[in-house]
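In the current project phase, we have settled on a layout for protein records. A sample record is reproduced below.
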Amino acid sequence: MHTQRQLFHRPGFMDSGEVPHHFICPISLQIMKDPVTTVTGITYDRASIERWLLVDRKPICPVTQQPLPDDQALLTPNHTLRRLIQSWFDAADDRCPDIQDLVRGLFVPRLQLRSLHLLAALGCENNESIRRRLVQSGVPRILIKLIASFRVDVDRVEVDLALNLLFQSLRVPQNDLKPIADGRDCLSIVDLIAQVLAGENREMKSTATMVAKALMEAASARLLEQLKTEFFRSVLGVIRDRISPQVTKAALQVLLRACVRGNNRLKIVEAGGVREVVELELSFPDKRTTEIDLGVLSRLCSCAEGRAELVGHAAGIGVVAKRILQISAAADEEAVRVLAAVCWSSATKEVLEEMVSVGAVEKLCLVLQADCGSAVKEKARWLLRFAMHPLTAALKSSPTDPSNFARSVVDHLKKQDEYFEEATLHAADLRV
């Protein structure tokens, strides 16, 4: 089977007519590399149907809607179709098509779909120089204009191909993308991405999320300021869907990047961001996802609405406290920052009592003894001193009821204060 690169090294490829529809996988909408036929008689690219059955766990044929067994042994290699695709490649001419010719084809209705297929195949090459050529030829900018003119419900195939191509061509250094992300049409494609993310097609949602991540990383302050609550609601829907760990992380990184602008934090909170991130963390994701989760929460808790949502969630403070000293130094820093934000502005008697009951105060004490950074220890020490006075008052008001741990925390803090006071006096004596 020829590789994507070999597709462009066969005679008359540009003159061979439209890509035969039976060469296209019904799931990925790309030319098949390894066609296999299911028991329903429909042929798919092996990678796409295996993901459909084993990852997405959908035991039905996407085309016929008939039941499909999840046994990979029942996927029969379609050698006949494989040879036909190879013969079709062999009929092409021995030159690489000019990217500018393909770009011009995007503006000709009868050539648009074929040009998208060919550019997408070029973009799939694991070759940064080709992707740079795509950027230098203006492909991303043109695609953004083109996609902005599409309708998701009418131009589904074109949108999917264009998003795939845009994702491939965006995998270049950020400096090359900044002029594109600053363009006026970029906001239109963000709106279209929001529509795709709100849809049902998981393949398209995956690609759209990766495109959104790439755009956000290169986005100007002007673009970030214009993002809408509906966009964030769609991104949070991707997190809720749990399409794949990679897509979930990309969606979280979109939120993290958007949080650079303060007004976006409130929009994300209004879209249900705190709740979705806490629920994701309750599912025990991988360490990197947890780090991003806590990073998003620490930024959302910089606004009163975010803190209220975290305190209002039954597992909010508890899940943050539990991650301290479990994941990484970066996670510790973000988790302590979340608790500090809550204590500084929302330290009611009930919140402080909850911090004791869920083990947050105990974890902060452990931070002081652990091998953590000085900044994290200082913030933890401040938090404990801040909490000491309400805890002491609680002990005095109900001396028969409070937990032994609350008493030990107060005793520990008093000893800490005595130690620091003694050390300060000693240092002053030395200076004299």
User: Anything to note?
Assistant: The two ends are 84 Å apart (CA to CA). Residues 5-90 form a domain with the Herpes Virus-1 fold (CATH 3.30.40.10). The chain has a mean pLDDT of 78.
